Amino acid sequence: MDWSRFGLDRVPFRPAVDTGSYFPAPAHEAALACIAAAFSRREPIVLLDGPTGVGKSLVARKWLEDLLPDVPRIVIPNAQAERPADLLQAILFDLGQAYLGLSEQELRLAVMAHLLEVAKRGFPTVLVIDEAQNLSSAALEEVRLLSNLETREGTAVVTLLIAQPGLRAILARPTARLCADRIASRISVEPLTPDESAAYIRHHISAAGGDAGQWFIEEAVSLLAAACGGIPRLLNRVAAVACELGVQTNALPVDAEAVVEALTQLGIPLPAEQSEENPADVVTLPPPASTTASFSSLAPKQPSRKRKAKRDRRAA
Fold first, then answer.
1. How many Cβ atoms sit within 10 Å of the Cβ of residue 42?
2. What is the dihedral of CA 101, 106, 111, 115, to 10 degrees?
3. What is the pairing mode between strands 45-49 and 73-76?
């Protein structure tokens, strides 16, 4: 779709992590400040957690962008490590080094040698491990062992664990106690407030080069904010579908009816107040197969009868 026809520079509400349209929500800004402070203190392990879709990965990516380019970094976007060797292989893979056919100790020595050599240049390596709740106790112990590496300049690696809240329960187990003791900063990212959610929607339209008032009426923005519970990922998904519905039916700005239709398609329940007002509109569907589907694939193939009628009335 050529979004320039609608006054936009690009697709709004991208499903992937997009630092280019970063919205400085207070919760995200506070998390950024805490991570930066922990790094300045060279804390060996930092934990960043929060509900699914709240923006943890976005915060981490934004922090990495703000770091000096001389700071070395390793990013593991989807941690799956049952054995220490699994984690060590993932690190070497990101570094572009050989990782196949090596014993666990050989993998460990290769990682340690790299981290110590790089640290001599003045900065510790930043190791970002996303989905860290998938690390086993043995893998967490490997993280702790790496955090012990030091040179004359200080610690050789600062690890940022990005995880769902369940990791805290894992760290509370006796098998993970030593790793937990190394985590000085535990930072939680909270969902957006309703007012922040509304500002988030307007910001993303503006970031795409558009005028929020020409894309969403206030009632639609309020419904989006209430239905998505302050979760940016849900706001993106629902707003994306609602925008496509408005474009397909020539019914811009997007109204509350389009938002209800988008919520229904994505299997997201309406807020209680809206459900009581429109009980006939509430349809529970299974969630989409993939949360990373393309923008266009999320939109329905044909508009509903209601939206078709609305389009015909506007055309008349």
1. 15
2. -150
3. unpaired
Confidence at residue 46, expressed as pLDDT on a 0 to 100 scale: 98
Cα 78 → chain centroid:
12
Give me the pLDDT at residue 300, please.
41
Residue corresponding to tokens 């589907």: 293
Residue type, 108: R
- Identify whether residues 142 and 233 lie together within a single domain: no
* Whole-number pLDDT of residue 15: 83
What are the CA-CA distances from residue 164 to residues 86, 109, 130, 188, 216 (Å)? 20, 30, 10, 10, 32
Please state, in angstroms and rounded to a whole number, the distance separating the CA atoms of residues 80 and 87: 8
- 166 and 41: one domain? yes
Tally of structural domains, the chain? 2
Terminus-to-terminus CA distance in the chain, angstroms? 25
Domain match, 31 and 177 both: yes
Stretches in the chain below the pLDDT threshold 50: 279-302, 305, 311, 313-316
